[in-house]
């Protein structure tokens, strides 16, 4: 095939080339070829462009720039060769092979080999001089630039720099310093780069934009964004104005340095000026929006990135997946992951970790387990945090067998369980009522050197309550107080819940426990289980209790207190508590009315509170019929179709049996799960028949 010979100061021109260019430059060219590495002298009025190494290559692609693209010219501008810079040579010519040997590609390859020899040599003046002396006495400026630009050993690069600066006179000495700084960047040695910069100043060498962009990118690659900002803000003092590439890179640096306002300001300006922004900077912007909680902003940046033709990389995808996890938007994480796979990317550990966090936090149990098993199949290990994320999810979803499998895998992998690991497992066994396993896990926790925290002790109290081991509940409360832990609302709510499962003759023990944990709640509980005569005080004290507790536990407290009333056959007090809950808006939207249907909505209530609400609603329906008010064609009760995560029995099952006991004409709707419906025609005679028995719940 033909050889294309690029005209450059190092190119070897032949008469054929001269004849081609004769029309543009009639004056002769003079060549002087030395032995070994070819050098030359060139005299011409033709403006020939000297090959330089560019230092303003894209910061996001520092390690992967093509050597042939790294060109910088004496005037500081970059150009590309036009097709007119090449001459076609007949491959059948007897001189073709000779021309090929003398082409600049061959010379460049020889200089690269010199760079490799310097990288592997001892960092001594003698060794470096021995290697470079092989270049002969006529070393060109661009030869020095090419050699150092291809080096990766900063120690020998410094010695080579001194060798060249002592022997050559540079047109622009900043270029040889810039490529040497680039060697420090390859090694992420910002200290070395900064020291070399100081040497430049001491020698009177003026830094240029390429100098600063190289040091800036070195700081970024070294994960020192504050240093990048520091160097960026020095540029004006040297009379330099950053170019678009540098400005775009600083969006990333300012963002990672914590100056979000500046980063976003530069981003807005970048969009206006249509700067080219790299994938690393887009990833930082996604992270900035994610950390500030603006998750829609994350998605907008991602869409803008694709719109301008910037290709997302693994960092972009992993950052976006992590943001969607914190946003609790697992469905969007699934969509982004699907796009990533469709674009040919292979998931990394970071990808799987982000997916596990996203699915685990949102309790997408099946999806999280699929990711976990895929990681195991590929031999990708999990961290302690990821194991704990999975176990916490299993505890919330009631995945007992899966939790045991994950825990055994955690131990076999050599990852040591921490207090949160044991806490999740104790919760799982406690909620399942497996007292022995819960206690065994507690013992393992103590042997590992961890003291039980309030979450562990709360779970144990729940476990002992289910097993009706009241004395163990009392002992656990005392242990909590001995550890100096202050009972919180969740702990007190658990004690209340245990009371709803405890025989009447042991309620006094638990009332004492509750009073130790929360004196106001203990007082209300004692009024509730006391003999009659305290009705007025009870409602007043209950109202004061709800006023002084957190909104996150008010419904749980009210539900448990109503359940306790129902268990003790105190229907009137249960109704008082339900009315108080409606007044204080602890319960909202329990009833709805339309021209076609009146409904009772019970999904957020405990079984006792739901039965009490049913009693009140049926009484209101009876009064409506008595007063002559027309009922709508349909009456409905919505219990929801869910069930307790550690039980097969949900509210719908409780109501199904209770409605049968009442002989109520409500039947489960086959096409509406969780709904019990009846018609006006069936309801009215049943309500009439209840006049003599309005006290039934």
TrEMBL record:
InterPro entries hit by this protein: PPR_rpt, PROP1-like_PPR_dom, Smr_dom, TPR-like_helical_dom_sf
Protein origin, superkingdom: Eukaryota
Domain Smr: start-end pairs: 600-686
Each PPR repeat, start to end: 173-207, 208-242, 243-277, 278-312, 313-347, 348-382, 383-417, 418-452, 453-487
Pfam family membership, one: PPR_long
Keywords, in A-Z order: Repeat
PROSITE patterns per record: PPR, SMR
This protein's record includes keyword Oxidoreductase: no
SUPFAM superfamilies: HCP-like
Key word ATP-binding present: no
NCBIfam families membership: PPR (TIGR00756)
Family indicated by similarity: Belongs to the PPR family. P subfamily.
PANTHER family named in the record: OS03G0856100 PROTEIN, PENTATRICOPEPTIDE REPEAT-CONTAINING PROTEIN ATP4 HOMOLOG, CHLOROPLASTIC
Annotated protein name in UniProt: Smr domain-containing protein
Organism per entry: Hevea brasiliensis (Para rubber tree)
């Amino acid at each position: 095939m033909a050889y294309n010979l690029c005209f450059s100061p190092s190119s070897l021109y032949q008469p054929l080339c001269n004849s081609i260019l004769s029309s543009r430059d009639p004056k002769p060219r003079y060549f002087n070829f030395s032995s070994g590495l070819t050098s030359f002298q060139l005299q011409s009025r033709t403006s020939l462009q000297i090959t330089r190494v560019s230092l303003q290559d894209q910061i996001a692609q520092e390690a992967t720039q093509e050597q042939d693209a790294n060109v910088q010219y004496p005037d500081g501008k970059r150009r590309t060769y036009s097709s007119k810079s090449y001459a076609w040579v007949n491959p059948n010519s007897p001189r073709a092979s000779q021309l090929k040997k003398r082409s600049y590609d061959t010379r460049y390859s020889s200089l690269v080999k010199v760079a490799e020899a310097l990288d592997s040599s001892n960092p001594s003046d003698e060794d470096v001089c021995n290697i470079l002396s092989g270049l002969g006495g006529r070393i060109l400026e661009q030869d020095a630039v090419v050699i150092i630009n291809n080096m990766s050993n900063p120690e020998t690069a410094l010695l080579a720099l001194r060798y060249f600066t002592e022997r050559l006179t540079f047109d622009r000495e900043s270029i040889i310093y810039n490529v040497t700084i680039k060697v420090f960047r390859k090694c992420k040695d910002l200290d070395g780069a900064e020291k070399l910069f100081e040497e430049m100043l001491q020698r009177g060498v003026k830094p240029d934009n390429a100098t600063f962009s190289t040091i800036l990118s070195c700081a970024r690659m070294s994960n020192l964004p504050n240093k990048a900002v520091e160097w960026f803000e020095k540029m004006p003092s040297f009379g330099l104005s950053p170019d678009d590439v540098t400005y775009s890179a600083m969006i990333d640096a300012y963002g990672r340095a914590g100056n979000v306002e500046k980063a976003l300001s530069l981003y807005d300006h970048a969009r206006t000026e249509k700067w080219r922004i790299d994938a690393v900077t887009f990833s930082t912007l996604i992270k900035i929006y994610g950390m500030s909680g603006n998750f829609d902003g994350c998605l907008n940046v991602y869409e803008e990135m694709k719109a301008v033709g910037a290709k997302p990389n693994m960092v972009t995808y992993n950052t976006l997946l992590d943001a969607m996890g914190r946003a609790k938007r697992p469905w969007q994480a699934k969509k982004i992951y699907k796009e990533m796979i469709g674009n040919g990317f292979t998931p990394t550990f970071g990808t799987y970790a982000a997916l596990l966090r996203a699915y685990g936090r949102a309790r997408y149990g099946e999806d999280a387990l699929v990711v976990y098993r895929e990681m195991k199949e590929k031999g990708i290990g999990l961290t302690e945090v990821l194991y704990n994320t999975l176990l916490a999810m299993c505890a919330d979803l009631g995945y007992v067998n899966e939790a045991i499998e994950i825990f055994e895998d955690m131990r076999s992998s050599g990852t040591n369980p921490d207090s949160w690991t044991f806490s999740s497992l104790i919760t799982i066994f406690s909620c399942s009522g497996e007292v022995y396993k819960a206690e065994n896990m507690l013992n393992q926790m103590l042997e590992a050197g961890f003291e039980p925290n309030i979450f562990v002790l709360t779970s144990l109290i729940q476990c002992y309550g289910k097993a009706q081991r009241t004395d163990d509940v009392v002992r656990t409360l005392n242990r909590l107080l001995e550890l100096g832990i202050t009972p919180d609302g969740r702990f007190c709510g658990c004690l209340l819940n245990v009371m709803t499962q405890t025989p009447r003759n042991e309620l006094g023990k638990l009332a004492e426990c509750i009073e130790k944990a929360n004196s106001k709640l203990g007082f209300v509980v004692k009024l509730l289980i006391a003999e009659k005569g305290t009705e007025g005080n009870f409602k007043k004290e209950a109202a004061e209790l709800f006023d002084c507790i957190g909104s996150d536990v008010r419904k749980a407290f009210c539900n448990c207190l109503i359940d306790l009333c129902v268990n003790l056959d105190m229907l009137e007090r249960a109704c008082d508590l339900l009315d108080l809950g409606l007044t204080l808006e602890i319960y909202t939207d329990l009833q709805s009315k339309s021209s076609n249907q009146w409904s009772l909505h019970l999904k957020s209530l405990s079984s006792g509170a739901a039965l009490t609400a049913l009693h009140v609603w049926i009484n209101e329906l009876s009064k409506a019929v008595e007063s002559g008010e027309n009922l709508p064609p349909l009456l409905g009760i919505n219990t929801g179709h869910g069930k307790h995560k550690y039980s097969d029995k949900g509210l719908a099952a409780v109501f199904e049996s209770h409605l049968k006991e009442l002989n109520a004409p409500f039947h489960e709707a086959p096409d509406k799960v969780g709904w019990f419906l009846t018609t006006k025609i069936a309801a009215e005679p049943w309500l009439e028949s209840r006049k003599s028995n309005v006290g039934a719940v």
